[in-house]
# Entry
Amino acid sequence: MVALAKREKVPYRIARGDLDGKMKCRVWRKLHAEEAKRFDQAYLLMEKHPELGLPDAFALVQSGMSIEDLQQRRVRTQKKAAVKEARGSVPGSAVDAYLAALIAEKAEVAVVLGDRTLVDVLVQSEPIAFKLERSGRLEKLQVVLLARRTLWDPLSPTLDRDQKLAQKPLPIVRQPERRPFSDPRAFMPQIGQEIGITLRNGIRLKQLLVAVGPFDLLVGQTGNEIFIPLHGIARRAEQEPPAGGEAPAGGEAPES
# Structure
């Protein structure tokens, strides 16, 4: 049947019908000339690229997509699946407990964004957003760092910053598989150890890694942690460029 379909350049169902005594392939080609032409093109594509199956080849013909585009799409699909698997393998209980404690305490928190810092009270943590008492709903992708204000106010002015990122933070990447860090498992071996990270707005932190969640890290001291979303991390200490005359910048002034 496969040989008949390729010889007549028709779908397998038409070839099967021909073998079963139904409509002949040649008759189908006359009745459906445009579709038959697309199957001609699909089979020619399969001859040039044996790794292609008929569904992929036909889809390429219909969409006008190139082989390179298809391969890139497959890579993206594989990366998305890998990110989903990675996130599903890491428990989120530690991060959830930290956020729940902030909500229960009604503690003032510093929410560091790419270009400013909000001071507010965390009311609720949704899957993709925080709800703040005064500022309302805030998309989590905007957040670079979150900590109790009593911790962040004295710590912030002491931190080193990457001047280039401080002036122009890295843009928000909405596709997880395209971010510098999306697999939380890469941080698991360093729980209990000090790690160095640079955030997308240039803030450099060297802190004890307390816990790893599916989407976030907790660093600092147990009971007084700093919440770092993975999407907020630009690079780790081992990826830092050589020192090039960058001077530490002053701290951010919180917005009430």
In short: Residues 129 and 140 are 5 Å apart (CA to CA). Residues 67-88 form the longest helix (22 residues).
